[in-house]
TrEMBL record:
<dbReference type="Pfam" id="PF13897">
    <property type="entry name" value="GOLD_2"/>
</dbReference>
<dbReference type="InterPro" id="IPR051064">
    <property type="entry name" value="SEC14/CRAL-TRIO_domain"/>
</dbReference>
<dbReference type="InterPro" id="IPR036598">
    <property type="entry name" value="GOLD_dom_sf"/>
</dbReference>
<dbReference type="InterPro" id="IPR001251">
    <property type="entry name" value="CRAL-TRIO_dom"/>
</dbReference>
<dbReference type="Pfam" id="PF00650">
    <property type="entry name" value="CRAL_TRIO"/>
</dbReference>
<dbReference type="InterPro" id="IPR036865">
    <property type="entry name" value="CRAL-TRIO_dom_sf"/>
</dbReference>
<dbReference type="Pfam" id="PF03765">
    <property type="entry name" value="CRAL_TRIO_N"/>
</dbReference>
<protein>
    <submittedName>
        <fullName>SEC14-like protein 2</fullName>
    </submittedName>
</protein>
<dbReference type="InterPro" id="IPR011074">
    <property type="entry name" value="CRAL/TRIO_N_dom"/>
</dbReference>
<dbReference type="InterPro" id="IPR009038">
    <property type="entry name" value="GOLD_dom"/>
</dbReference>
<dbReference type="GO" id="GO:0005737">
    <property type="term" value="C:cytoplasm"/>
</dbReference>
<feature type="domain" description="GOLD">
    <location>
        <begin position="308"/>
        <end position="410"/>
    </location>
</feature>
<feature type="domain" description="CRAL-TRIO">
    <location>
        <begin position="101"/>
        <end position="276"/>
    </location>
</feature>
<dbReference type="InterPro" id="IPR036273">
    <property type="entry name" value="CRAL/TRIO_N_dom_sf"/>
</dbReference>
Length: 426
């Protein structure tokens, strides 16, 4: 059989993929043996080579293949969508000074790292039992909640990568210990909280595939199955198979098999205490977790919502676009935006021009945004001076005009630095 290369955009319903060997797409390859996996991996690397960096090794690529059952087409779509997301949220710089943890988290931390376990997997503790869910959702935008979670995930991955460099072969995995002690439905049951939880779960599975080793849900209440059933439809089968739920203390011995009791907090059955011997480890956890309303966002905790009177509005006619240029004169300026439409989705992208005569560069690709449901909000650190163009595209709609509500702001880096110095002094 001859081998043909063809662009998948020419084939109906497969327009997201790149040049690929038709034999690889049509043939059911045997990936149960090493040779089969090697062939598929080689082809997958060729297909996505345009987006890969030198540190993206075979182990990294295999994560995406396993997540889509070694289907190259689906794996490519998944990894490309994830790379767009990482660029959008700033994942590659989230461990640098470009990102600062929100003040509300600094005062009310809900997670902490325990380092590596005996099998060199990362171990992270979450405290969903004491978490003030409504307080967090009211204090942070959905995008900021995602950035917060991405920060923790990237921190753990960096720790694992550094260990891998030292010892060579290492399976990149993380164990989550989720303590539901003091959990109550009253502080959890809220539509905005549930929606945020679903988005965070989806974001994790779509962008960090095959990195979960195990999730221990401990000290769960008797009614926990009701809560779990809300999120269960959004968990894939692989994730579900790694979740272990415990109502009693039986989990302690299992966790101690992989986590050194010396680093495991005493309130989780370990030996770690505060320097003064306090078993509740107040240096790690703020048990007084009720978030002060002073942290809450304005406009009923919903920037860009119907109560936000600062939003501007315009109507984008069918088969038309709306462009909003923003002049940036200081490197490091943060460009922020939030927008929504009244009834329908819109396509959005971000472009850059050095000056009027220069060619327009794509920063964020133009893609569909369902902002008629939840306002779309994001920010971008403008490392270069010039004109940044917010691009709203309705050209794909032949019959429907879109009413757009939007707000665009810039934050000067000098002001941010001055504020940070003031905070340090206080």
């Amino acid at each position: 059989m001859n081998v043909f290369d063809r662009r998948w955009s020419d084939i109906k319903d497969l327009n997201s993929c790149s040049y690929i060997d038709l034999n690889m797409a049509n043939k059911k390859c045997d990936y149960s043996n090493e040779e089969g996996r090697r062939v598929i991996l080689k082809e997958f690397r060729r297909v996505v080579k345009d987006i890969l960096e030198p540190h993206h090794d075979d182990d990294f690529l295999l994560r995406w293949l396993r997540a889509r059952d070694f289907d190259i087409i689906k794996s490519e779509k998944m990894i490309r969508e994830s790379f767009k997301f990482r660029k959008k949220i700033g994942a590659d710089t989230i461990l640098t000074s470009a990102y600062e943890l929100p003040e509300v988290f600094k005062k009310y931390p809900v997670t902490f790292s325990l380092g590596l376990d005996s099998e060199n997997s990362a171990v992270r503790v979450f405290m969903p039992g004491i978490c003030d869910y409504k307080g967090y959702v009211y204090s942070l935008r959905t995008m900021d909640l995602m950035k917060l979670l991405v920060h923790f995930l990237e921190y753990d991955l960096k720790m694992l990568q550094e260990k891998k460099k030292k010892i060579g072969k290492l399976d990149i995995k993380t164990t989550f210990i989720m303590d539901f002690q003091e959990f109550s439905l009253k502080k959890f049951y809220d539509k905005s909280v549930i929606n945020a939880g679903i988005q965070l779960i989806t974001m994790y599975q779509d962008n960090y595939p095959e990195t979960l080793k195990a999730a221990y849900l401990v000290n769960v209440p008797s009614y926990f199955s009701w809560v779990f059933n809300i999120f269960k439809p959004f968990l894939n089968s692989v994730t579900l198979s790694k979740i272990k739920i415990y109502k009693t203390d039986e989990w302690q011995e299992e966790i101690k098999k992989v986590v050194d009791p010396k680093v495991l907090p005493a309130f989780l059955g370990g030996l770690r205490t505060d320097p003064d011997g306090n078993p509740k480890c107040n240096t790690l956890v703020n048990w007084d977790s009720k978030i002060d309303p002073s942290f809450y966002l304005k406009q009923n905790m919903n920037p860009g919502g119907i109560d936000d009177e600062t939003m501007k509005t315009t109507t984008i006619q069918q088969r038309s676009v709306f462009q909003m240029p923003v002049e940036i004169k200081t490197p490091g300026t943060i460009l922020k935006w939030v927008f929504r439409t009244k009834d329908y989705n819109i396509r959005f992208g971000l472009f850059y021009k050095t000056d009027k005569k220069s060619r327009q560069e794509e920063i964020l690709p133009v893609e569909n945004v369902d902002c008629q449901v939840i306002p779309e909000e994001n920010e971008f650190v403008c490392e270069k001076t010039g004109t940044y163009i917010l691009y709203f595209d309705n050209s794909y709609s032949w019959m429907t005009a879109k009413q757009l509500f939007y707000k665009v702001e810039t934050e000067n880096p000098n002001v941010i630095e001055a504020n940070n110095k003031t905070d340090v002094k206080s």
